[in-house]
Amino acid sequence: MASESIPLTIRTNPLAVVYEWLATVDHKKIGIMYIVYALLFLVVMGIEAILMRIQLAHANATFLSPQLFNRLFTLHGTTGIFFVAMPILFGFGNYLVPLMIGARDMAFPRLNAFSFWMTALGGFLLYGSVFAGGPLSQAGSAPDVGWFAYAPLTSPAFSPGHSTDYWTLSLLVAGVGSIGAAVNFVATILSMRCEGMTLGRMPLFAWMNLVMGGLVLVTISPLTAAQIMLMIDRYIGGHFFDTDAGGSVVMWMHFFWIFGHPEVYVLIIPCFGFVSEIVPVFSRKAMFGYPAMVAATVGIGFVSLGVWAHHMFTVGMPSYGNAFFVLTTMVVAVPTGIKIFNWLATMWGGKIRFATPMLFCIAFLFQFLIAGLTGIALSIAPFNWQLGNSYFVVAHFHYVIVGGILFTIFAAFYYWFPKMTGRMLSEKIGKWHFWLFVIGFHLTFDFMHIPGLLGMPRRVYTYEANRGWETWNMISSIGAVVQAIAILLFVYNMIESYYKGATAGNDPWDAWTLEWATPSPPPHYNFAAVPAVQSRRPLWDIKHPEDPDWKYE
Amino acid sequence: MSATGMEIPATASWKLPSRGRVGMYCLILAESAIFAIFIAAYIFYIGKSISGPAPRQILAVPIVASVGLWASSFTIHWAVAALAKGKTWIFAGLWFLTLALGAFFIGATAREWHHLIYDEGFTIQTNLFGTTYYALVGLHASHVIIGLIALTVVMVFALFGKVRPEHHERCEILSLYWHFVDVVWVVVFIVVYGLS
To answer: Which domains does chain A have, with CATH numbers?
Structure first.
C-alpha cells in the first residue's frame, strides 16, 4: 500500500508558486506557512534575547539604553507567546490533525486561511510599530509596556505616540485569528473523523488539540475584550482603566491573567500531544493509560481556568482569594503528575530508540518536572510575596516555555519533518543540536534562579556590581550564546536536509498513526480512499494482521 | 494509497455532528466569553463613577424594542421550520419579519443613544457609567448589526427563490447565532436596566 510515488509539482513559474501559497486553503500548506512564519519570529525573538543577555552579562553595562531594553523585553515576550509559540503549534495541529483523523482537510478551509493571515497580520503590525511608530510620535519606536502591559502604563498619559496602539491592535487581530483557528480545530476533530475513528480511538495529539481549541475559545476572547476596552480608553476617551475617573488598574490585571494563565496550557497541551505520539513510537509500546491521559488533559483544561490570580499575589488580595488561588494552582499538579507517570510507564520496559525526537522528549520530562516544581513553590502565596517579579519567576516560566514547550517542538520537528518534506533531518547534526541546546538551556535557566533568590528583580536594564549577581548573570549569558549556536545548527540542518537529506519513505519511524499511511509529503487530497480504522493504532493493525490491536481494546 | 486492510467489513452507520453546528457553537462560546468580560466590568463599576449622571437619572427602559427582539427568536425559529417543510414563501415572510424586528431594535437603540448624547449630553467620556454602558450596549448592538447583515444576505437569496428546503440546516445554524444575540440581550437588559 501507499508505495506508488507521487510526482512532484512541476514548478515552472515562480509567480505561480507564490500565488499558489498565498491563495491556498490546503491545511498542509497553511500548516507549513504557520510554522515558517513562527520560525522567522523565533529567530527575531532569539536575537532580542541575546541583546538583552549581552546587556545583563556584567554590572553597570551600557550596551543598551534603558528605553531600548524596555522595548526589547516587551517585543521578546509578545513575539514569543503570540507569534512563535501559538502559530508554530497551530501549524503542527493544522498539518497533522486532519491526517491523523483520516480527513482530507480541516472543517472550514477558507476560515483556516483567514485565521492564518490574521495571525500573520498581527505579527506584522507588532513589528510595523518598529518602523512606523517612530520619530514623529516622539515616544518610542516599539511597544515598551511589557508583554502584560499593566495599566496605567498603557494610558495615553504614560504611553504617548502609537507604539502601544500597535501592540493592542496586533494582539486583537492575532486573537481573531486564534479564535478562528480554534473553531476550526474543534469542528474538524468532532465532525471530520474517518469511519471507525471514535473519540476513544483518536490519537492523543488530536485529543489534546481538541482540548487546546476549547481552551482558546474561552481564554483568547477575554484578551480580545480587554484589548477592545483598552482601545476605547485610548482612542475615544473611555475610563475602563482610568483611576482619575474611578476606574481600576487591577481589573486589567484580572482580565489579562484570565487570558494569560490558561494561555500557558493552550501552549503546553499540544506539546503534551507531541510527547504522547513520540514516546510510544520510540519505546515500541502502546501508550500507557490512554483514558487517564485524556481525562488528565481535560482536567488540566478545566482547572487552568480558575488559577489566574496566582499571578497577582503580590498585588494584594483578601486571604480567601489567596487561599483559593493557592489551592487551585496546586491542584494542577495532580493531572500533570498523572501525565508524567504515564509517559514514564510507557517507556518502562520498552525497547527505547534514542533518536533525536526521543532525546528531546526525555529532556522534556526532566525539565518539565522541575518547571512544575518551581511552579508549585511559586503557588505558595508567602513564597510568592518574597520572589514575585524576581528573576526566579523569569527562570521558572522560561523553564516551562523553553524546557517544556520548545524542547517538544524540536522533537516534533525531528519526528514529522520527514512527513512534511519527504527527507530525513540529519541525526548527526540533530544530536549536536540536542546536546548543545541542553547544555545552553541549563546554563542559562538553572543559574538564572539564583540571582532571583538573591533579590534581582526582572526587567531591570542593569544592576550594581556588589550585589553578588554578576557571576550568575554571566553564566546565563554564556548559556544563551550556546543555545543560539544550537538553533543555528538546527536551521542549517533543516535547509541542508531539505535538499540533501535521506529519502524518508512513507513511514520512517515504523509508527502507528494514520499520517504515516500517506506518502511523504502527502498529496493534496491526503488519502486516495478515506480510511476506516478499528483501533487506536491503525497502522499496527495493517502491519500485524495476525495480532491486531482491536482484539484487545 | 489503496485502502487494503483498512476497511471494516460491515460498515455500521457512521454519523458525526454537523461541522457547521459545531463551528457555530464554538463561535458562540467565544463570544460568550467576550460578553462575560464586558458584563463583569459593567457590574464591577456600578456605583463607582465619581461624577454624574447615574443610570436611573437618564435611562429609560426600552421595553418595546426588547420584546420585539426576543419575539424575533420565535419568528426565525418558525421560518426555519417552514423551510424544512418546503414552504419557502412562508419562510421568506417570517424571515423578513425577523429582519424587521431586528432593524426596529437597532433603530430604538439609535434613538436612545441620540437622545442621551444630544439631549442629555451623556457620552462614553462622561464617566465610568458612560464608558461601560456604551461599551456593553454597543458591543451587543454591533452583534445585532452583524446578524442583520447575515439575515439580509439570506433574504436577498430568498427573494430570488434561491433558498430551497435543503438549505434549512444552514439557515438553522444562522438562527443559532440570532438566538444567542437575543439571549445575550436578556442578560444585558437585566444588568443595564435592572441592576443599575
So the answer is: 24-551 (1.20.210.10)
